[in-house]
Amino acid sequence: MCQMNVLEAKTNFSKLLMLLENKEENEVIICKNNKPVARMTLIPQTDRAKALGIAAGKLKYPINIFDGDEEIAEMFYGSEDI
Question: Is the per-residue pLDDT at 18 higher than 90?
């Protein structure tokens, strides 16, 4: 467990995240006027994966969005009649 004041935590926020991700610390206590006010912990990997990949494999889209629609292709690429 690591403990630091708000200004220190603000200054070293990226380092604190790295400590948690690398499991060098399991939590960071943030203090204000030397009194603990917040706890910073790492979200377990399984929860993070669910939140980020919620629509994985459910969306289908064409490789080329202009295939099959000549009007849109002409607006972006211009007419081939020139």
Answer: yes
